[in-house]
Amino acid sequence: MSEIEYSILIETFTLQEGGDAARFFRTLEAAVQMTAEDRGEVLLIDVCGFADLHAAVQERFPGIRMVDAVGLGYDDAKMMAAREASGVYLLYLDGDCLPQPGWKEAFLRRLRAGATAVGGYTRYDGGYRAALESVMDFGFLYPCRERGLECYAFNNAGFLREAMLATPAGSPYLRCACYQHAQALKHLGTPVQMVPEARVLHEQQPLIRERTRQGFDKVAAAWADPNVREARWLKGRFLVVFLFYGMDLLLDWRRLAQARKPLGLSYAAWLSMFPLFPFFRLIDLWGMLRALLGGPVDGGWGGSLAAERTGISQEV
Predict the structure, then answer these.
(1) What average pLDDT score do residues 183-189 get?
(2) pLDDT value at 184 more than 60
(3) Are strands 156-160 and 148-149 parallel, antiparallel or unpaired?
(4) Domain ranges of the chain
(5) Which of 140, 188, 194, 137 is nearest to 164 (CA)?
(6) Would you tell me the crossing angle of helices 277-294 and 128-138 to the nearest 10 degrees?
């Protein structure tokens, strides 16, 4: 058995996209604390290459092992983390996500019991709008109970390392190909298992940027897997946006019906959200149109949104 039982893997991709540096260091601190008294390690896969970030991490957390992944995309950085890790189990935690009490223990219990892949519960950190957008972006996690997942959130997931290396994640057209990866694992007979107790609070994203990226990825997912139903829809060109729009609304309403208790919503707040989805989903249409006008491109919308930042000295 490996001397290191598990590896907590964190990347700087979300920080490069404009994530809050103070929150990033809170995530690192939480990960270091979780590995302080057992056989765990923390790996930071650095895609930024900021010298001041490297120095700040080494000064505050000298036990973190840093891996140079400058220039890699989101999924590629996570796969490099899998190759570099020493642990039997891989626990993925994004730098803009704060793990809640019991996060590590919940994942390890299920993995030790024989699960190949596990996914936790992610929601945006905040109030009413954060809850609404949690349904839109992480709605596939509802109902929030133990079950096989059709898709997982890569910001909050765990894997048996050897299984991750045998069935890697990634697509040239998507920032994150977690749906395709979950389907591949399902077809192998090792579906991703939902672990509701493994909870993280995700930094809330800029509304326009995130909604348009989500719209782009809706089309890009069809490029990535020509066998899905939505790939056939692309033959209709621009009419496809209405099909995606309608499908998303139906999913939003169905998922919200299951999300009131996990999101901690009052009945009044919960009911008031149902008529808002048609307006919020209109923003997604621009991302869809950009995808259809531009055609398949490596890196997708997410790659084009990386922040051009020369340093984070003033933030850390």
Answers:
(1) 95
(2) yes
(3) unpaired
(4) 6-204, 208-302
(5) 188
(6) 50
User: Is the C-alpha dihedral spanning 259, 264, 270, 273 positive or negative?
Assistant: negative
- CB-count exposure of residue 293 (10 Å: 0-12, 13-18, 19+): exposed
pLDDT, position 240: 84
Q: Is the pLDDT of residue 306 over 50?
A: no
pLDDT for 303: 44
Average pLDDT over residues 166-186: 90
* pTM of the complete model beyond 0.85: yes
Residue with tokens 């103070």: 22
The structure tokens listed for 65 are 């092992």
Q: The tokens 């139906």 sit on which residue?
A: 250
Residues 6+ apart with CB under 8 A from 160: 88, 89, 90, 111, 115, 116, 117
Q: Which residue from 162, 16, 38 is spatially nearest to 95, judged by alpha carbons?
A: 16
Report residue 247 as tokens. Answer: 């499908």
Q: Which residues pair with 119 in a beta bridge?
A: 157, 194
8 pLDDT more than 90: yes
- End-to-end Cα separation, the chain, in angstroms: 38
Q: Which residues contact 235 (CB under 8 A, 6 or more apart)?
A: none
- Cα distance between residue 27 and residue 300, in whole Å: 27
50, 47, 36: which is closest to 11 by C-alpha?
47
Let me know if domain 6-204 sits in CATH 3.90.550.10: yes
The answer on pLDDT for 239 being more than 90 is no
